Amino acid sequence: MTTGTDLHKTLRIAVGRVSQSGLPIDFDAGPADLQRIASDLGLTAMAQFKGSLVAMPWQKAGVQVTGILKVAAVQESVVTLEPIETDYVIDFDMIFVPEHSRLAPRKADFEDEIFVDPEGEEPPEPFSGDHIDLAPYVEEHLVLAIDPYPRRPNETFETIDTDPEPEAGKVSPFADLAALRKQQGDKN
Fold first, then answer.
1. Phi and psi at residue 105, in whole multiples of 5°?
2. Which phi and psi (to 5°) does residue 30 adopt?
3. Which of 118, 125, 165, 177 yields a CA-CA distance of 20 to 30 A from 100?
């Protein structure tokens, strides 16, 4: 397992090294990457970001990468603003194909859009050259897994009564305007 190194170096795989038996890719992000990712995602801190992945050949020139990511993220509770450490276990499963492969998603000739079936399987991700940098993809999986509104299991928002005289009844927001018009003698 590679520990404490730059994720982009650790997670850059040579497609030619992917054998039929699979290429294991284990990583454990170092302090610099943990701090950078926490800052990028607006987290209080990240205590852990590690993974155990395997790259296998897919079709003729593609690569399928599967495995598990383990994350310990520290976020502020949206209720109390106190730090909460949450552990995430994230499944990772992606297919990569050369950008000129017939299996790569095609752009329309007249637009810069890729047509994707929202109900269908995730299309393969195209790559160029003879290397694939998995770092952006593992970080993307992390972003999608993190709770945007973290709170402890029993934390709830309490209703706060801001009406000083609840028995007085509901007052229209235009009541002051009506009183002003009466006071001016309705000159308008």
1. -60, 135
2. -85, 175
3. 118
Q: Which residues contact 72 (CB under 8 A, 6 or more apart)?
A: 46, 47, 48, 49, 85, 86, 87, 88
pTM for the whole structure: 0.72
Residue 133 contacts residue 9 (beta carbons within 8 Å) = no
* CB contact at 8 A, 47 and 118: no
Cβ-contact 26, 43 below 8 angstroms: no
Cα separation, 145 vs 88, whole angstroms: 7
Angle at 73 between CA 69 and CA 78, to 5 degrees: 135
Instruction: Say whether 54 sits in a helix, a strand or coil.
Output: strand
Q: d(Cα 58, Cα 134) in Å, to the nearest integer?
A: 16
- CA pair distance 41, 148, nearest whole angstrom: 10
pLDDT tens digits along 25-39: 999 999 999 999 999
Q: CA gyration radius for the chain?
A: 27
Q: Which residues of 54-70 are buried (b: 16+ CB within 10 A; e: fewer)?
A: bbbbbeeebbbbebebe
- Confidence category of residue 108, pLDDT binned at 50, 70, 90: low
- The edge-to-edge listing of strands for the beta sheet with 45-58 is 2-3, 23-28, 45-58, 62-76, 83-98, 125-127
